[in-house]
Amino acid sequence: MPTVDLSGAKTGEPLEQRLVRLEDIEAIRNLKALYAYYCDHGYDPDGVAPLFTKDGIWESNVFGTYHGADRIHRFMAGISKVVVWALHYMTNPMIDVAPDGRSATASWLLFGPATMRRADDPNVLDAVIQTGHYEDALVKEDGRWKFRHLKVHLYCVSNLDQGWVRQQFRS
After folding, report:
1. CA neighbours within 13 Å on the CB side: how many for 134?
2. CA 45/CA 49 separation, integer angstroms
3. How far apart are CA 25 and CA 62, in angstroms?
4. Calpha distance 151→66 (Å, rounded)
């Protein structure tokens, strides 16, 4: 579980420092929302790849691990042929910005309805439910937040007619 400050107001800190932290948290929320937007619009590789550092990592227990913006770009271009449509609902964010304001961690829950091609017959489409948990490591480069390591642990990728109890992960 990530470390998240639950103490509330930082009355002992300068107001500008407090405001910068809040702006950073909001920028990280927007980064994650933009990532979801590009995934939900055809896994747009030209949109997703620049959200990562050049040596960034995209990692999943189901879809593999991809090191570097170029490999992330290729993965996104390929996954769009398998996942025809998706909606990424990113919920329950916990964001912790380091005191120096140059790095952060964040976690999110994923609920994602999708339409996916069958591996054994790509002409057949299935309604699918994906659920999971994201753990992100972020850095601020040239004044903009980027993913250094995005890791999604999927709890299920299940055909809707089977559900996660009978089919945790579709083939």
Report:
1. 30
2. 6
3. 29
4. 10
Rounded Cα distance between 138 and 51, Å, is 10
State the average pLDDT for the chain.
94
Mean pLDDT across 134-159 = 98
pLDDT tens-digit map of 1-26: 566 676 676 777 788 888 999 999 99
Q: Where are the domains of the chain?
A: 15-166
Closest to 130 measured CA to CA, from 44, 40, 41 = 40
Residue 171 — very low, low, confident or very high, per pLDDT cuts 50/70/90? confident
Q: Out of 1.10.260.40, 1.10.1040.10, 3.20.20.70, 3.10.450.50, select the CATH number for domain 15-166.
A: 3.10.450.50
What whole-number distance in Å separates Cα of residue 4 and Cα of residue 97?
9
- Strands 89-97 and 103-117 turn out to be antiparallel
Written as six digits, the tokens of 139 are 């850095």
Please tell me the distance from the alpha carbon of residue 85 to that of residue 125, in angstroms, as a whole number.
10
Model's pTM, two decimal places? 0.93
